[in-house]
Amino acid sequence: MEYSSLGNTGLYVSRLCLGTMNFGHGPMDRGIGSLEEKQVQELVDRAFDVGINFFDTANLYTMGESEVLLGKAIGKRREDAVIATKVYNPFTNDMNSLGTSRKAIMREVESSLNRLGTDYIDLYQVHSWDPTTPLEETLSALDDLVRSGKVRYIGLSNFTGWQIARAFGISEARGFNKFVSAQSYYSLVGRELEYEVLPAVRDLQMGVMVWGPLASGFLSGKYTGKDGASGRRTNFSFPPVDTQRGDAIVEVLRKIAAAHDATPAQIALAWLLHQAGITSVIIGARRIEQFEDNIQSVNITLDDDELATLNQISQPATPFTYLDFSLQRGETLEQRFAQLENSGN
C-alpha cells in the first residue's frame, strides 16, 4: 500500500480508503447492499492486513449504524486507524436537526464519538454546503472542536470551487483552523471536478478524497449494453451516467485491462490514482472478492499512451465558461481560436 499526506498536514493516509456506506441497514440501502457485523469485521480486518489505515463513514450512513459497526470492527486498533466521519444530514424532522449550525455540530459530534466508541475523530467533514447557516458560525464551531481535541482535522464534502475558496478566506482572516481536504465525486464518467474544484484544492494545498470512483459499479463493466437494465443501478442510478458515452469508456477499459491482466474496475481506479492532487480513493464492497479486486489497483502503472487514451475517450466538452481564451506569449488570436476549434469546443 502507498500513503500520501492529507493535504498540507503531517497526517498520512492510505491511497485507498475503505468506505462504509453499506455497513448495517438503513433507508438508503437502495440496492447498495447491507453488511452484517461479521462481514464488516472481515472487511475491516482485511483492510488493515493490506495496509489500509483510512476509513470513511458519516452520521447519516444507515442512520448511525455504520459508525457503530466501524468502531466495533476497529476496536483496539484505534491508534492505527484514521477515521473520517461527516456532519450535516438530519435524523429527525426537527427544525434544528439539519445543517451545520453550532447547535447541530456540537450535538452530532458527541453522537458520532459515542457511536464510534472513541474520544476523538481524525477527520470531521461537513457533508454538504449549508445555505441556511452563516459560514462563519460553522467554521467557528469546527475550530472549537479542533482546539478541544475532539477533532484532529476538518474537511469538506461536495462543495463547489467558490464555496471552498470562501471558506478558506474566512478561516484565514479569522485565524480558524482550515479545511484540509475535500471529498468529491470523480470518475471516468464524471470529470466535472476538473473545471474548478481540483484547481481550487490544488492551489490551496488541500487533500482530495474521491467518492464514487466506479460510478456505483458502472465502470466495472457490469451495467453496460444489454446488461444496463439489471443490477443495483436499476434501483439507484446515482451518480447519473451518460450511458452511450459510458459504454464507450468501458470498452476502452476492457482493452487496457486485458493488457494488464486486470479488470476494468482496477483500471478505472488506477486512472484516478494517476491524477495529480488525488490523495485517496474511497472503495466500498459488498463482498470480500470485490474488495480484493479493488485493492490491486494500487499495483497498476498506466503508461502515457494508456492515460492519453482514457483521457481522450472520457473528456467531456468544456463548458464555455471554462474555455481558455488567454493568449500565450507569441501566440496570435487566430492561433488561439484555431486551437479551441480543434479541441471540439
pLDDT average, as an integer?
91
According to CATH, the homologous superfamily is: NADP-dependent oxidoreductase domain
Largest sheet: 8 strands, parallel, barrel
Oligomer: single chain
Task: Extract low-pLDDT stretches.
Answer: none
Give the helix/strand class. alpha/beta
CATH topology: TIM Barrel
The CATH class turns out to be Alpha Beta
Number of beta strands: 10
Helix content: 25-40%
> Total number of helical segments?
11
**What is the end-to-end distance?**
40 Å
Strand order of the largest sheet: 3-4-5-6-7-8-9-10
Based on CA atoms alone, the radius of gyration comes out at: 21 Å
Strand content: 5-15%
CATH architecture type: Alpha-Beta Barrel
Give a written overview of the molecule.
This protein is an alpha/beta fold and 345 residues long. The chain has one domain (3-314): Alpha-Beta Barrel (TIM Barrel), CATH 3.20.20.100. Helix content is 38%, strand content 14%. It contains eleven helices and ten strands. The chain has helices at 37-49, 65-74, 102-116, 135-148, 161-174, 197-203, 243-260, 264-273, 288-295, 304-314, 333-342; strands spanning 3-5, 12-14, 16-19, 54-56, 82-87, 121-126, 151-157, 179-185, 207-211, 280-283. The strands form two sheets. Strands 3-4-5-6-7-8-9-10 form an eight-stranded parallel barrel, surrounded by six helices. It has a two-stranded antiparallel ribbon with strand order 1-2. A hairpin with a 6-residue loop joins β1 (3-5) and β2 (12-14). The radius of gyration is 21 Å and the shape is globular. The model has no long low-confidence stretch (mean pLDDT 91).
